[in-house]
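Subject: complex prediction, re-run

Hi both,

The earlier run crashed halfway through, so I resubmitted it with identical inputs.
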Amino acid sequence: MEILKVQNLTLTLDGRKILDNLTMSVTAGRIHAIVGPNGAGKSSLAYTIMGLEGYRNIEGDIIFEGESIKGLSIDERARRGITLAWQEPARFEGLSVRQFILAAAKEKSTDAVKQALERVGLGPEYINRAVDKTLSGGERKKIELASILAMRPKLVMLDEPDSGIDVMSLENIFGAIKYLKQQGTTVLLITHSPVVMEHAEHAFLMCRGEILEDGPMEKLLPYFKGNCIPCRHKNQPELNGEFPI
Amino acid sequence: MSKDLSKLAGIDDVLHDPETAHLMINLNKVLSRNDIPGIEIQTEELSDGVSIKMVVKEGAIIKKPVHLCLGITHTQAVQRILMDIIVEDGAKIDIFSHCIFPYGGDIKHIMNATAKIGRGANYSYIERHIHSPKGGIFIDTKTKVSLGEGARYKSDFELLRGRVGEINLDYEAECDARSVVEMTTKISGSGDDIIKTRETAYLVGEHSTGVLNSRIAVKDEARAEVYNKLVARAAYARGHVDCKEIVQGRGSAQAIPIVEVAHPKAHITHEAAIGSVDTKQLETLMARGLSEEEAVDLIVSGLLGA
Ligand SMILES: Nc1ncnc2c1ncn2[C@@H]1O[C@H](COP(=O)(O)OP(=O)(O)OP(=O)(O)O)[C@@H](O)[C@H]1O
Ligand SMILES: [Mg+2]
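This time it finished cleanly. Structure:
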């Protein structure tokens, strides 16, 4: 069953086409990877699906559970069950981890907060810490993920969930992603890392604002690992001497 | 009457603890007090207020915070508080001051304070205001602090409950060698509130340190003017000014940071952020399902520590 459909989506920023007539169909209940090189437009696609400021003036459509969400605000989309974890999560002066996770949580209890923290490998001692600059980048990412576990969304876009995470903690992150799937959440992993890609079942290969190809992860992984050579970009002959990918 | 004040301040328990010093004043009358060893307190009733002189004896370590409750239960009154505190060498004291003006109208609270903190002494002062939600309160408070060698002074001013009315706040400190000063002001204004704050520190001794923090939120037609001045005149003096003001609705805010360095081995940094709440913070919370208004409230409450 399809949970999300992006149809002929074009996003133009400062006169540049960042997303170019992009179409994709996301099957519910699975872990998908959106892979592509730096600057491919992966984060922009996620921001557009979430409806962030500056990413709302689009051509094409975004259909979630059969309905267009193009006209909805961020919080309306979130209440439908869509959420996003930023590549670099925001920091909040004076806000405790507990307040931050509770704000997102379906079940408003300290136990729910503790459980979510535990799933990302953080102990209960984090509950009263502030979600500010005193947290390390990796800790901050884990707390972001914990808040999403507590929210129990239908669809989550995780933008580079491994960035800033140490090798030991990566297992916690992948464990939490698996848990999201078990809970019925559809996961979109945004990454340029083949290691992260391996945790997906299905992958979208993105380049220059387009989805070049999609299919089972195993099928796309070797090509992506080989730096997408040969380049399958349909516009390649018109690159004007630019280096492909 | 005194019950109203202590209840609003949330200090009912404290007033019954024989080991906690307190002084409770309504307008110009001392309603209750408790003295403990190590502190000498003298009070004098004035026609329009109270003069308080406090000495914390050399080396005295006051374990439990001393509570001052300064209230006005009238709807029209002027209260003048003169407070001089001497914290002698090596002494340590925390004072928690509750300023409770629950029935606004035409209320003026004027405070003139001085503090002399001896060598190696430690003084922390928290002033928390609770005002009438109706406004009509005018606050004018001046505090001058001198820090001896190796002394520490920390002040936290908080006006988050009720309407501000109009406030003029002025804290100034002069810091001797190796002393540390940290001042924080948190005020939330609405309606036609007028907020003027001034925090000044002169780092005149070597290795002295100063941090000036302001956290102000204004909405409706409220206006804020935040003036922070940090001057370093000695080697290895270090300082930082950090001002955050959140403006909503038709509110307006100004920040005037003055940092002055008059020694080549001194160093001061300064950061200020004024305006709407941070977009990424707002969008993060909205992406978790909070409405814009709920998200702004949560961000502001965090910033103000409310
Ligand atoms: N506001 C903007 N205005 C103009 N160009 C932008 C803007 N935001 C992003 N871009 C450009 O859009 C392209 C896609 O950026 P995006 O951040 O979506 O890429 P990405 O695939 O997430 O890359 P990375 O792997 O580095 O995170 C980049 O070339 C970027 O420079
Ligand atoms: Mg990106």
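Residues A 42-43, 87, 159 surround magnesium ion (ligand 2) (CB under 6 Å).

- K.
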